[in-house]
Amino acid sequence: xxxxxxxxxxxxxxxxxxxxxxxxxxxxxxxxxxxxxxxxxxxxxxxxxxxxxxxxxxxxxxxxxxxxxxxxxxxxxxxxxxxxxxxxxxxxxxxxxxxxxxxxxxxxxxxxxxxxxxxxxxxxxxxxxxxxxxxxxxxxxxxxxxxxxxxxxxxxxxxxxxxxxxxxxxxxxxxxxxxxxxxxxxxxxxxxxxxxxxxxxxxxxxxxxxxxxxxxxxxxxxxxxxxxxxxxxxxxxxxxxxxxxxxxxxxxxxxxxxxxxxxxxxxxxxxxxxxxxxxxxxxxxxxxxxxxxxxxxxxxxxxxxxxxxxxxxxxxxxxxxxxxxxxxxxxxxxxxxxxxxxxxxxxxxxxxxxxxxx
Length: 358
Known about the structure:
Elements: H1 3-13, H2 22-32, E1 37-40, E2 46-51, E3 58-64, E4 69-75, E5 80-86, E6 98-103, E7 106-113, H3 122-125, E8 135-137, H4 143-148, E9 156-159, E10 164-165, E11 171-174, H5 177-192, E12 201-207, H6 215-219, E13 228-236, E14 257-262, H7 269-282, E15 287-291, H8 298-301, E16 310-318, E17 325-328, H9 329-345, H10 348-353
Parallel strand pairs: 3-12, 3-13, 13-16, 14-15
Antiparallel strand pairs: 1-2, 2-12, 4-5, 4-9, 5-8, 6-7, 6-9, 7-8, 10-11, 11-17, 14-16, 16-17
Helix pairs in contact: 1-5, 5-9, 7-9
C-alpha cells in the first residue's frame, strides 16, 4: 500500500474526538518519534522539533488531531442513548449512520435513530429532524442492558466510517480528514526535511480540541515561541451541484488552497504573497480561498504574545463534518510539496521582512 494512503488510513480510522484524543495521539507520537524531539504539553498537544542549519527562526506547523464526534449525555429507561455533539454537525448527515461508543469494556456499535417517517404527520415529514430529537440505538431494550455493555455518561462517541480509495483511484473517502489530513501533512513535511537542509528550526504540533474552540492552539505557541506559523487544514470544495463560485470556488484535484480570509484571521500579507510566489516557482497549482463561515487554529496562534505571521494552507474536501469526506491524492501531495518548499525559504532575513512594511 502507498505510504501516503497507509498514513491517511491509520490517522482517519483512529478515534479522537475533542477532549478524548488519547488513541490518535498515541498513533501520532509513533509516527513522530523517528523525526525529531517529541514532547507533550499539559492539555495534550504533541510536538516534534527538528533543527535545520539554524536554531532560529522557529517555524510552527500546526494541524489539529481531534475530529467532530459526540458524548453520551443520558441513557433512557428504554435503553436508548441521548448525546451531545462535540463540534459542528449538520442535522441532515446523521440519521441512519453508525457510530462507535468507546467504553471501559470496549467498543459498542450504535446507530442514529429517530421517530420513523411513517408515524409523522405530513407537516412533520417536511421538516428536518433535529439532533435533539435523535438518539443512538445500540440494540438494547433497557438502561440496565446498556450499562452492562459498559456504556456510561461521558463516554466519547466516534463516527464509524472506514477509509476507502474510490474507483477513480486518486480520491479518498473517510471520516476525520478534518484535520487528520493536516496532521498527515505535518508528518510528511517533517519527513521531507530530515536532511536538515532548511535554515531554521521546525516544530510540528498536533493540537487538541480545535473543534470546540481552538483550545489546543491557545497553549501550543507557548511551547514553541514561533516566528512563523503555517496552519495545515482542510477546506471546503465548491465543485458539487448547488454551490455558487462566490460561496466556495476550490475544486478537488486542482491544488491546495491558500486561505485569504477566515472568520478568525486575515493572514500576514507578506507571508501569504510568499506562499503564492513559492507555489509559482515550484510549479505547484494553488487555489485562493475565503472561509467566511469557519475558523482554524491560526485564529489563536497568530495573536500569541506580540503576534505571529501566520497563513493557512489547506486541502480541499467535499462533505466536511460528516461520516464520508472526500479528498484528492494530488492535492495532498502538492500541499506537502508547497509547505516543504516554503519552509526551506524561511531564513532569518526572510522572516524578519514579513513584519516590515514596504
